[in-house]
Amino acid sequence: MTKPDQKKEAFVFDKVQHCYSGVPALEKIDLKINEGEKIAIVGPSGSGKTTLLNMLNASIQPTNGRIEILGKDSNLYSPKELKALRSNISLIPQNLALVNSFRVWQNVITGSIGDYSFPKLIKNLFAPSEKKLLEIHSILERVGIEEKLYSVTSTLSGGQKQRVAVARSIFQSPSTILADEPVSSVDPARAASLVKILLKVAEEEEATLLMSLHNLDLAIKHFPRIIGIRNGNIHFDQSPDQISQRQLEELYELKESEILQDG
Ligand SMILES: Nc1ncnc2c1ncn2[C@@H]1O[C@H](COP(=O)(O)OP(=O)(O)OP(=O)(O)O)[C@@H](O)[C@H]1O
Ligand SMILES: [Mg+2]
């Protein structure tokens, strides 16, 4: 029997606006994202990339408009459902949110906070089974830092910490991975390697992947769909071969207020 090639919508934005203290960070965003898509979000600092990603797991709600997340209005999730949602839609935040005093394997375990009862979490955090540690070791192998399994997280480099945050996300077996600037503290070769790891994991797990990136070359080289955000608006939403040089220049153009005037 052939499988019907029907794409399911994972996220639908309908005229979504988000304001912080009355100031809009995102304005009237219309967007559809299908399950399994791999999308890079690019745009200048302060354009709204983090705000957009945080709306996808309902950490931030629209001020106006509505978002459907996995077929349900983001406002209609109960607190219990939200916990499950955030376990299913894993966010790797820009600041990584790792516990520096924990060993690497403990930080990976915290990815399952949404799935475990409190006693089970405590047991896994302080007396994990051999099987759990083997599982974490194999995830660390996928991100290339298996030798750091027992290291204290504070002793790791910025790039290694980013890999721990990716491993924590893989441990959740999410249906969506939201990665907010996951390659900010690594050299170009390691940045490309980490982007490829995330794309490979998403492919293998059939997960949707959205990644914000300051590195435009990485976005263009590795993603089939790129969303450019400028001043809280979608400036373009296209495949890399359709994006013009002009659109890219406009995306990063400085505003009047950002240009320092000489003496
Ligand atoms: N918690 C907050 N309170 C008030 N304003 C905020 C808050 N978070 C973001 N903003 C504002 O919203 C706008 C969008 O911010 P956001 O963090 O989404 O941008 P970004 O594209 O992720 O930037 P960067 O590339 O620097 O990470 C900015 O003007 C920012 O100052
Ligand atoms: Mg950001």
Brief summary of the model shown:
The chain is 35% helix and 24% strand. The chain has 263 residues and is α/β, with parallel strands linked by helices.
Order of the strands making up the biggest sheet = 6-7-8-3-9-10
Uncertain regions spanning at least 5 consecutive residues: none
The CATH top-level class label? Alpha Beta
As for the number of domains, it is: 1
Task: Write out key terms for the chains shown.
single chain, 263 residues, alpha/beta, Rossmann fold, 6-stranded mixed sheet, 4-stranded antiparallel sheet, 9 helices, 10 strands, 35% helix, 24% strand, globular, binds adenosine-5'-triphosphate, binds magnesium ion
Please give a structural write-up.
The chain has about 260 residues and is α/β, with parallel strands linked by helices. It has a single domain, classed as P-loop containing nucleotide triphosphate hydrolases (Rossmann fold, 3-Layer(aba) Sandwich). About 35% of the residues lie in helices and about 25% in strands. The chain is built from nine helices and ten strands. The protein has helices at about 50-55, 80-90, 105-110, 120-125, 130-145, 160-170, 190-205, 215-220, 245-250, and strands at about 10-20, 25-35, 40, 65-70, 70-75, 90, 175-180, 210, 225-230, 235-240. The longest helix is centred in the C-terminal third of the chain and has 17 residues, at about 190-205. It is globular. The model has no long low-confidence stretch (mean pLDDT about 90). Bound molecules: adenosine-5'-triphosphate (ATP) and magnesium ion (MG). The site of adenosine-5'-triphosphate has 11 residues, from helix 1.
